[in-house]
Amino acid sequence: MLARAKQEAELLLQAQAQKFEEQVKTIASATGYLTDHEKQIAKSVVRKWRKYKSSKLVDTLLQYAGLLKEAQVLSTSLRKNVVYQFAMVTHAPFPISQYEQEFQGGDDSDDLLLYEKKPSVAVKVLDLNSNRIYFWSLSKFKDRLRIMRSQRDTVESPFIGHDSVKENPFVDQQPPQYALIGLTDVPLFAVSQERSQRMKLDVYSSHTFSIVAELDISVICEPTLTGEEHSFDIHLHSVQGFNDFIGSEFHVQTDISNAGLRTNDRTIFVSKKRNLSTGSTLKYDQRFTIDSDEHISQIGFGKTKVLRFEIFTKPKAMLLESLSSWDELRSQDDAVKFDETSVNNFIVNGIWTLEVS
Asked: Is pTM beyond 0.85 here?
């Protein structure tokens, strides 16, 4: 009797072990685990890809480095008070605040910046007169530089009328009001486990990639209480770390379509605008629901999905001055070496900052 019971227990354990191994294989396949041979192939491909991409990047920077310096010299000599720097845009579409008015129009239109294949090299514009921060595609930069030269010739030559170049090529006439200043990724692993999780996450500067703030946020998934099996909530509590000197009208934004979630509802959520009077805490206390075509148990399964949260502000003079000073210090501290193993850059949200000396 005991022997039979023992045999049945062993068979049950074997069946459970086999089932567990099958589950592990399924999960491994879903998460993209590679065999040793596959890892070696992948590493070889990545090395070649990086070498190719780095070479193309270096060629582009070398081609435009002199032009960028020329634009900066023209800006300084004509007292335009505008700073130019290289940047690399790595995400499409280009991040724009939902509170932004339709600034992309007329002569300021730059479709290449918005929609061209990423990553792409761009030019960061720091307009110290109007406290605006924005970016130009290289094509637009070349067009503007041509007009800058014409304006210089107009100023230097007494035989050319000063009204012959009326536009100001150094800046956009209708630049964006808000600038991206921080970003962080919120993991959705808790959703697949059908539980809630409150997190305090580091916010990284979209210009220097240093930690500049902290995002307090909750992912709320309670299907047993709500009965909803295809939705979960995000509760934005606060952002702490910024100060009143760098900007106003701070707001947080996320595009859920970038997380790979299939939804039939709106895809971009944006918070209310907040200002800092005292302290460094921006309190939002906003909650929004994300409806997905997928069952919540599949969200975050395998490769964990994340929601990228972007923080925008209306810049003040101190922010632009600090960014300009940071670029100058970077250029002085270590000169750029243009080779396939060393390019002087910092990742910035979707934007890298690159200095050329």
From this structure: no
